[in-house]
């Protein structure tokens, strides 16, 4: 239960949260988090999901979006649907832009036209910043944006659209820039999953003792997905309209350190082999965020350390 300004008179309403992309990695955790708080959560997915209550919603289909927003009038939307893989964004930038940018503006239009009191949480990415330079520094929300891949471009475009709709149409929206988030059940194509799966394949004798890796020198900010969705919830309640928020741990780990920790958790003999095909055309060398703003506005802070997350990811693959 929360207070919202639906008209000049304040009234108490129930939360009714639409989660787009609810069957994805973060979406499933977000739905579980909301349901554990007994919040009415409406999940949506582009693909039809069996005998579930998940709504079929393609965010590039304007008619579908208008129907869902007009029909449900959610008090809040957590917009997780889209294309989130940087490697795929290089391979198919058109689809990435279509889903991440056009999909976002379609939802903004539907809110403006049919549900103007909805709070919209736009999910961006730390990739909007690009490379934070050779100087080791913490990136805050005022840092220069200079995305180095089509995925980052698509998310930065969505960010600009959100801010414009706040100013032009008074849409109650805010934009978040989560840094690398990790946890069990994430799809392959992300570094922690690729490392963990290869190590388990070695343990079970499916492949040789060599683990194939890309660039190990890059430094990233990793946060457990369960902390990420807790941050999104706090921002739904306490985030300020029109603002941008980093969601991150504020701690940097090199990819080499992540790999070393994984290897230390296994009893197998593992040899590392550099695979040039795993390098990106342009690689951000160092990207660690400042979480000062979200802490000040919501009192959120991450609780699950990286080592715990990596151990749980490894055990997830062992138990498949």
Short structural summary:
The chain has 320 residues and is an alpha/beta fold. Helices cover 40% and strands 20% of the residues.
Description:
With 320 residues, the chain is an alpha/beta fold. It has helices at residues 25-36, 62-72, 86-91, 93-114, 150-169, 191-203, 225-238, 255-264, 292-298, 306-318, and strands at residues 2-4, 11-13, 16-20, 40-45, 55-56, 76-79, 119-123, 138-139, 172-178, 180-182, 210-213, 219-224, 244-247, 252-254, 271-274, 286-289. It has a domain at 2-183 and 223-249 and 291-303: Rossmann fold (3-Layer(aba) Sandwich), CATH 3.40.50. It contains ten helices and 16 strands. The chain has a seven-stranded parallel sheet, sandwiched between helices. Helix 1 (25-36) packs across helix 7 (225-238) and helix 2 runs parallel beside helix 4 (93-114). The longest helix has 22 residues, at 93-114. Residues 1-12 have low confidence and may be disordered.
Key attributes of the depicted protein:
single chain, about 325 residues, alpha/beta, Rossmann fold, seven-stranded parallel beta sheet, five-stranded mixed beta sheet, 10 helices, disordered N terminus
Q: What's the helix and strand layout?
A:
Blueprint: E1 2-4, E2 11-13, E3 16-20, H1 25-36, E4 40-45, E5 55-56, H2 62-72, E6 76-79, H3 86-91, H4 93-114, E7 119-123, E8 138-139, H5 150-169, E9 172-178, E10 180-182, H6 191-203, E11 210-213, E12 219-224, H7 225-238, E13 244-247, E14 252-254, H8 255-264, E15 271-274, E16 286-289, H9 292-298, H10 306-318
Parallel strand pairs: 3-4, 3-6, 4-5, 6-7, 7-9, 8-16, 9-13, 10-12, 11-15, 12-16
Antiparallel strand pairs: 1-2, 12-14
Helix pairs in contact: 1-7, 2-4, 4-5, 6-8, 6-10
